[in-house]
Write a structure and sequence with these properties.
Oligomer: single chain
Order of helices and strands: EEEEHEEEEEEEHEHEEEHHHEHEHEEEEE
Helix content: 10-25%
Shape: globular
Number of strands: 22
Distance between the termini: 48 Å
Strand content: 25-35%
Length: 432
């Protein structure tokens, strides 16, 4: 399967009377886009705002971030199952508007409960907040949609996610037929054609948690080919499908946005090393169940797929969600090790606040076979963010009752994009 990502580098975004790309500028017909999104009766109206790098602007209640992408080859569909018809993703050509992002902001006023910050996750477009998050450096198209009359919170959030995917495809179609600034090619043949195994290059598989069941799944939310998949068993998928809209970040993925999945750093790294240091054998997607019996079931299936179907010598594993999915990840790694597959796991430590533990980072498992762990940090370090001139979305008061437009102190966990469970964050911890 071969996928071409034709990248257009965007240096500015402006509203105009026509949606088009010209000389590195994305022009957007706001009325036309609003009309498209308002076709979904679950949304009670959609406002669209722009936020640019360097602007003293703060975006509140960020639910997800999506990079504008659209298919340009005949017979293909955008975000199949969610926006387009059911066809295989991961092949043909796709236009990418690099330097832009579609931001979904929750305008419902229906928070996650008393324990959550009333302003949700934020994006600052200037200052230290912009430095720690990639979305402080992109030209952002912010969708602010309220739920329609009688629409439940779950229905609203599923609709908002689909609105973001529609916006992504609508914008990227403006670049169709244009000469790209860069073309990235991802091509991986069928497993039967991939050489590997000692004394040749070791076969390595990536085991990717796409959904945690520690939170209630949202019916209708497009996670895999347009469906929520809480009952899916571990499944083989081509890595190109993940780049190309088959997998979408669920609500409450915790430190994973769809943008990160579209630019999946683990998969890109495995591609770069393919044929040199390893043979990339493919991807196994799975969920993280919330009970021991199902954890045993999915870890058994995933490890057997890796060993007996893909013939893997090694496996890389990541997780989604909070602390509980660590158990599924670790148990899957342990089962792989017991079958002779060497494993490495990469994880953010979400199970304990750094202030509550002597060493700062902990795991909630202890398995002697799982001895190769890459720590990607603890998301509870606090930063001070300066005052801004403009607020987009959300309440106007912070958790402490102070104006959110002013200076605020927030844990890094609440800065959208600053940390990533897939490994794309650039923060480094140093102990003095």
């Amino acid at each position: 399967m071969r996928l071409e990502l034709n990248v257009l580098k965007i240096r500015d975004v402006q509203f105009s009377d026509k949606t088009a790309v010209s000389d590195g500028v994305l022009y957007i017909n706001r009325d036309q886009l609003q009309e498209l999104l308002s076709e979904d009766g679950r949304l009670g109206g959609v406002e669209i705002e722009l936020a640019h790098p360097g602007e003293r602007c703060r975006i509140l209640q960020v639910l997800d971030v999506i990079e504008p992408r659209a298919k340009t080859s005949d017979g293909d569909e955008d975000f199949p199952g969610a926006v387009g018809k059911q066809v295989p993703a991961g092949k043909g050509s796709t236009c990418v508007l690099q330097g832009t992002a579609v931001i979904l902001s929750d305008s419902s006023g229906r928070g996650e409960g008393a324990s959550a910050d009333p302003n949700g996750e934020i994006i600052d477009m200037s200052g230290p907040g912009a430095e720690v998050s990639p979305y402080g450096k992109t030209h952002n198209i912010v969708l602010l949609a309220a739920p329609g009359d009688g629409v439940s919170t779950q229905e609203y959030r599923a609709a908002l996610k689909i609105a973001g995917l529609k916006t992504s495809a609508y914008l990227a179609k403006a670049g169709k037929g244009m000469k790209p600034d860069l073309t990235e090619v991802f091509e991986l043949p069928p497993v039967t054609d991939i050489p590997g195994g000692s004394p040749k290059l070791p076969r390595v598989v990536y085991i990717f948690q796409i959904l945690t069941l520690q939170f209630e799944p949202i019916p209708g939310e497009p996670i895999l080919y347009g469906k929520n998949v809480p009952d899916i068993v571990p499944t083989l998928i081509h890595p190109n499908e993940i780049f190309d809209g088959a997998v979408i970040a669920p609500h409450r993925a915790l430190l994973v946005q769809t943008y990160h999945i579209q630019n999946h750093p683990m998969i890109k790294e495995l591609y770069q090393r393919h044929g040199k240091e390893l043979s990339f054998a493919g991807v196994i997607i799975m969920t993280a169940p919330n009970n021991v019996a199902d954890i045993e079931r999915v870890s058994n299936i995933a490890s057997c797929l890796a060993k007996y179907i893909l013939g893997a010598d090694g496996a890389v594993l990541t997780k989604t969600g909070g602390g509980a999915p660590e158990l599924t990840m670790a148990r899957t790694a342990q089962r792989c090790e017991q079958l002779g597959i060497r494993t490495a796991i990469a994880m953010l430590h979400l199970g304990a606040d750094i202030k509550d533990t002597k060493y700062g980072a902990v795991t909630i498992f202890s398995m002697p076979e799982v001895d190769a762990i890459v720590s990607m940090g603890v998301p509870f370090m606090e930063f001070t963010f300066p005052a801004v001139d403009r607020i987009i979305g959300g309440s106007r008061l912070s958790q402490g009752g102070q104006p959110v437009q002013g200076e605020m102190v927030r844990a890094l966990r609440w800065v959208n994009g600053s940390l990533c469970q897939l490994g794309s964050a650039k923060q480094k911890a140093v102990r003095y």
